[in-house]
Amino acid sequence: MINEALFFSAVLFTIGVVGVLTRRNAIIIFMCVELMLNAVNLSFIALSRLHGSANGQVFVLFVMTIAAAEAAVGLAIIISIFRHHKSVDLRNINLLKG
Amino acid sequence: MLQDLAAVDTHPLAATAARYVGLLPLLPLAGFLVNGALSLMPAYKAGPSDPSAAGHDDHGAADHAHAADHSDDHHAVARHKYAGLVSLVGPLVLALSFGLAVAIWLAMAGADEMKTPYVKTFFDWMVTGDLRISWAFQLDQLSMIMVLVITGVGTLIHIFSIGYMRDDPGYPRFFAYLNLFVAFMLVLVLGASYPVLFVGWEGVGLCSYLLIGFWFSDKANADAGKKAFIVNRIGDFGFLIAMFLLFANLGTLDFTGVSAAAPQLGYNSALVTTICLFFFLGCAGKSAQLPLYVWLPDAMAGPTPVSALIHAATMVTAGVYLIARSGVLFAMSPTACITVAVIGTLTALFAATIGLKQWDIKKVLAYSTISQLGYMFMGVGTGAYAAGMFHLVTHAFFKALLFLGSGSVIFAMHRAYHHTGNHEDAQDMRNMGGLRKYMPITFVLMWIATLAIAGVPPFSGFFSKDGILGAVFERAQHGALAEATWLGMPGSTVLYALYALGLVTAFLTAIYMTRMMLYTFHGPNRTGEAERAHLREAPWTMTGPLVVLGALSAFGGWLNLPAAIPIGPVGALEKWLEPVVGAATVSVAGAASEGVTSTEYALIGVAVAIALLGIAFAVMRLKPAALVPARDAVPSHGFEQVLEEKYYVDEIYDGAVVKPLVSGSRNILWTGIDRGIIDNLFVNGSAVLARGFGWVGSQLQSGETGAYAWAIAIGALAVLGAFTFR
Questions:
Q1: Shortest CA distance from B704: residue in chain A
Q2: CA–CA separation, B37 vs B626, rounded Å?
């Protein structure tokens, strides 16, 4: 049972990582980040169950809260980027170049 | 500490005026604070519309363009708002100090037996490890003499300064410095240990610097101040080394402690000679002896009362005082004693020859001061401490008189030139001449001082100079110095040579002083028609002190009459100083022989003959009538020119020391090390390095979000891999 759960979590996380690394669209990268967070949540739940402890579930609640806050801020930034560039392609956004 | 207190309580001076000894320097210090505060008050401001200010600035510039190396007393005429108060406070604190000194002296003379000094400890000053130095003053016969001279002559010179400096805008500042000087000078002579003495030593050096550069808006004056300060640093280095050596070997720096422990150093050991010679280096700086005398002639850039007080009567004699104070140490080293005497004699002769050809009246007196200081060192060097101190005292009288008299002359000349708007040099003797008609008081008094310094009986200088020369002759005959060897020569031969050179110097002294008097006061007047009308005697505030000093110069010899001339109490000063320097004198010279020998009469006869011959020679050879004013003078040549240019010593020092130092500093220290290494390599180099690292770092920042994501991912994989395959 635990193996399947952790395997599934690892698959989800890898999909998220690959998505972040390869895609250029800010919205999709954002969704992939959410995917990674949820993969982590899944392994927390699985391990919590394995150890019979509630600690992992508490952490999941924290992660979800942070993810919600992140979503609010992140989407706001993406909208403002879109207003400025008329696009959410991250290749155009390199203002931090040294 | 308890023992000290007990000793103080039972001391014969404990219940007398001597317990107020701390007030002696505090009074002038209070004067310094008051006058210093007044000098900071905005009392006078020369605006652009003020004609006197503007006019005088122009005068100064024009005047110094053609007389760059002459100090002259040109200054703006602007009486300070608080001049009246300053004239009261400045001399009053000195007079009070002098009164207290006299009271202490009376108490000391009244106490029949005073074998040990009266030491008054005020507080612990430095206590670290083995070093324990108290701020303590010491009263004994030696410091008493110095205190009386400093406060007495100092009071007279302060009174003179009222007349001389009254119209200077820096009047309160002048008196503040002068008061501060006296305070430090009293600390110097009262200090009960070498470090306290050193505080006074450095303090008078500071005041000397401030007063030489009193008219600092003129670069030449400011440079003269700096020269004095820097040359004195060389001497002070010697003083410090000597103190360190004393402390390292004896563990104490108190005078009483040092004289008790001195025998540990070993008679005529290399160590005691080294200590003495380092002390003498300090003396050579402060008292302007070869080779460090060069600052004193330049110090004449200061106002004339300063030259009289600091650079003739008191500060420059501090070296003589230091050697007399360290008599115990010097008595243990015949080598050092003879070195002191040799340097003193050579300085006396050297400076006297330069004095023969100077035209600036104050320069003549400056070289004469150096020469007379040489005599004093000849005295203290041969262990004739009483004779050296005697010459110090009489020299303070007659040289202060000569300087103040020259100040009175310069004052009159300057005022005359001021009335007619003439810009000639008011200190050049070629511009004077025939002043006896216009300044009779100054004329008579300066002749008294001249006869005194030339050594004509019965004036004071005769007795003191004769005392020194007689002592040198006696030491050459027998005693520790005659038996010692100095640089491979027998001490006796060296001392006979010194005696002969001393006589030559006495001859030269008579010549250059007579020359100065002839050119200044005799012959035709060379000031010019318009100026002549304005030449007149100085006000009473200036002539009054001159009269007192004249009396002292004339009769100061009675302080210490030789046994050969018993016209009063014989050897009073010698008896007075006996408890302090008697042991050291005996150790150098052996017990004094009783009775008067025919040799002594012969020596006195020779000295008098030499002095009179010198005066006669000068009167016969010099023709004041043939002199022309400075602006028409033809340059001299040959040896005369060498003398007039002071043997080119300043030029030699400039080429040998100053120029290499400046060019070395500029080319190596500044261009090479400061600009090349510090600025370029360290400062700019570190900036370049930081910028390089920054450029490398900035190249990593592509701004591409994807690249960052890849970096994070690869980094995370690397960390994971490192953990997994560890």
A1: A94
A2: 51
Report CB contact under 8 Å: B702, A20.
Answer: no
Choose the closest CB to A98 out of B699, B706, B713. B699
CB-CB under 8 Å, B713 with A17: yes
Is B703's CB within 8 Å of A94's CB? yes
Angstrom CA distances, B391 to B367, B407, B469, B635, stand at: 16, 23, 11, 37
Q: Does the CB of A98 have a partner CB in chain B at under 8 Å?
A: yes
pLDDT score of A63 more than 90? yes
**Closest Cα in chain A to B708:** A21
User: Which residues make Cβ contacts (< 8 Å) with residue B428, sequence separation at least 6?
Assistant: B70, B359, B360, B361, B630
CB contact under 8 A, A94 and B699: no
Report the alpha-carbon distance of residue B549 to residue B158 in Å, rounded.
13
Among B702, B709, B713, the residue with its CB nearest the CB of A94 is B702
From start to end of B97-254, where are the E strands? 118-128, 131-139
Mutation target for B interface from A24, A92, A97: give the one with most B CBs within 10 A. Answer: A97
Task: For residue B631, give Cα distances in angstroms to B424, B502, B515, B533, B723.
Answer: 8, 36, 20, 21, 99
- Dist CA B110 CA B139 (whole Å): 14
CB contact under 8 A, B706 and A95: no
H or E element, residue B485: strand B485-486
Q: Which DSSP symbol is given to B193?
A: B
Could B704 and A98 be called an inter-chain contact, meaning their C-beta atoms sit closer than 8 Å? no
Residues of chain B with pLDDT > 90, as a percent, come to 57
Note whether B703 contacts A21, CB cutoff 8 Å.
no
DSSP class of B537 = P
Are B704 and A21 a contacting pair at CB < 8 A?
Answer: no
Tens digits of residue pLDDT in B370-413: 999 999 999 999 988 999 999 999 999 999 999 999 999 999 99
The pLDDT tens digits for B165-193 are: 888 888 999 999 999 999 999 999 999 99
Cα distances from B547 to residues B88, B99, B516, in angstroms, run: 21, 20, 20
Q: How far is the CA of B427 from the CAs of B18, B606, B624, in angstroms?
A: 44, 35, 16
pLDDT score of B668 more than 50: yes
Query: Does B700 lie at the interface with A, CB-CB under 8 angstroms?
Result: yes
pLDDT at position B433, please? 84
CB–CB of B394/B460 below 8 Å?
A: yes
pLDDT at B71 over 70: no
Question: Of A17, A91, A96, which is closest to B701 when you measure between CB atoms?
Answer: A96
Predicted confidence at residue B477, as pLDDT, reads 86
Residue A96's identity, in one-letter code, is: L
- Is the CB of B244 inside 8 Å of chain A's CB atoms? no
pLDDT at B57 exceeding the cut of 60:
no
Could you tell me the pLDDT band of residue B159, with boundaries at 50, 70 and 90? Answer: very high
CB contact under 8 A, A24 and B706: yes
B/e letters for B514-526, b = 16+ CB within 10 Å, e = fewer, are bbbbbbbbbbebb
In chain B, the residue whose alpha carbon lies closest to the alpha carbon of A94 is B703
Q: Per-residue confidence at B77, pLDDT binned at 50, 70, 90?
A: low
B64, pLDDT greater than 90:
no
- A 3-22 residues inside an 8 A Cβ radius of B: 17, 20-21
Q: What is the pLDDT of residue B187?
A: 96
Residue B76 clears pLDDT 70, i.e. is over it: no
Question: Is B62 in CB contact (< 8 Å) with chain A?
Answer: no
Of B189, B210, B183, B278, the closest CA to residue B239 belongs to B278
Q: Going by C-beta distance under 8 Å and a sequence separation of 6 or more, which residues neighbour residue B532?
A: B416, B438, B525
Q: Tell me, what's the pLDDT at B595? A: 63
